[in-house]
Design goal:
The complex is a heterodimer of chains A (about 130) and B (about 130). Chain A has about 130 residues and is an alpha+beta fold. Chain A is about 20% helix and about 35% strand. Chain A has one domain (about 5-130): Hotdog Thioesterase (Thiol Ester Dehydrase, Chain A, Roll). In chain B, strands 1, 2, 3, 4, 5 and 6 form a six-stranded antiparallel sheet that branches. Classes of the chains: A alpha+beta (about 130), B alpha+beta (about 130).
Chain lengths: ~130, ~130
C-alpha cells in the first residue's frame, strides 16, 4: 500500500526517552568495528531516531522489511554524552511516488531532557510497494 | 593523527563486517529489519542477499573519521546509500573507508570520504565536518 501523501508536513508524537547508558554505548561501539572511546559514536543518535521511525511505521501500517535507507544526515549541536536522555520527534517533510515506490523524506529533531536541541537527523527512506 | 590540511589524503581504514556483527548491531540499534539477517527475506524483497544496515556502514565511516581526527567533535555527518554491502554467511565483507581533507575554515575541517566494498562505492557523497 502506498504511503498517504497527506502525511507531508505532519509531525508525529515524540518517542519515549532513550537514556544513553555506558553499556549501550559500549555495545554500539563493539558492534561497529571498535571499542569504547572517550566519545559516543557519531551515529549513535540513530538509536532514538530509529525508535521514531518504528513509531511512524506502526502508526502508518508500513512494513519495515519494505524500507531501504536512501540517505542520512546528522547535524549536531553538541556531542552526545552518557547520561543524556534523548527524545526524537519525526516530521514527514516530503514524499515522491514513482512506479509503486515511495521516496519519503523525514526530519527528526533530537532533544535532551531539558528540551534543548542536540541533533537534527534528516533521512530519505525508500518504501518498495507490493506490486 | 594526520594533519588536517586541505588536500591531505587520510590513511584508508578497512573493516570486516560479519553477519554476527549485523545481529549485534540490530540488537543495539533497534533496527531488526530482517533484510539484515535473513537471506530468504532479503531475496524476497529483491535484494542480492543479506545486506549490512546502511547505518552500519555509516558507523564505520564515522569510526574512520574518529581515527583520523583523534576523535574530534563531529558537527555534521551525511551520506547517501547508493549500493548495498552484501554480507556473505562465510567470512563477511570488507568495507574500506578513505578520505581527503577538502577544506579547513572557521575551526572546522570538512572531510570528503570514499567508502567502498569490493572496489564498488557503497556510499554517495559521504562527508563529515569536524571541529578542529
Amino acid at each position: 500500500m502506498p504511503i498517504d501523501p497527506t502525511l507531508v508536513g505532519r509531525e508525529f508524537p515524540p518517542t519515549r526517552p532513550l537514556l544513553v547508558t555506558e553499556a549501550d554505548v559500549a555495545s554500539f561501539a563493539a558492534a561497529t568495528g571498535g571499542t569504547t572511546t572517550r566519545r559516543v559514536p557519531a551515529t549513535f543518535p540513530i538509536v532514538v531516531t530509529f525508535r521514531a521511525l518504528l513509531d511512524f511505521l506502526e502508526a502508518e501500517q508500513v512494513e519495515l522489511a519494505r524500507i531501504v535507507h536512501g540517505e542520512q544526515k546528522f547535524a549536531y549541536e553538541r556531542p552526545i554524552v552518557v547520561g543524556d536522555q534523548l527524545t526524537a520527534t519525526l516530521a514527514v517533510t516530503g514524499l515522491r511516488q514513482i512506479e509503486g515506490t515511495d521516496i519519503l523524506r523525514t526530519t527528526s529533531t533530537i532533544t535532551d531532557a531539558t528540551g534543548d536541541l542536540v541533533c537534527t537527523a534528516g533521512a530519505t527512506l525508500v518504501h518498495r510497494g507490493d506490486k | 593523527m594526520s594533519a588536517l590540511e586541505p588536500g591531505t589524503e587520510l590513511e584508508p581504514q578497512e573493516f570486516v563486517v560479519r553477519r554476527s556483527d549485523l545481529v549485534a548491531y540490530a540488537a543495539v540499534s533497534g533496527d531488526q529489519n530482517p533484510i539484515h539477517q535473513d537471506e530468504a527475506i532479503a531475496h524476497a524483497v529483491g535484494l542480492p542477499g543479506v545486506i549490512a544496515h546502511g547505518m552500519y556502514t555509516m558507523a564505520l565511516a564515522a569510526r574512520a573519521v574518529a581515527i583520523w581526527t583523534d576523535e574530534a567533535e563531529v558537527v555534521e555527518l551525511g551520506c547517501k546509500f547508493t549500493a548495498p554491502v552484501v554480507v556473505p554467511a562465510d567470512g563477511g565483507a570488507t568495507v574500506r573507508v578513505g578520505g581527503v581533507v577538502k577544506s579547513v575554515a572557521d575551526g572546522r575541517a570538512t572531510l570528503a570520504l570514499d567508502v567502498t566494498c569490493a572496489g564498488e562505492k557503497v556510499l554517495g557523497a559521504p562527508k563529515a565536518v569536524v571541529r578542529v
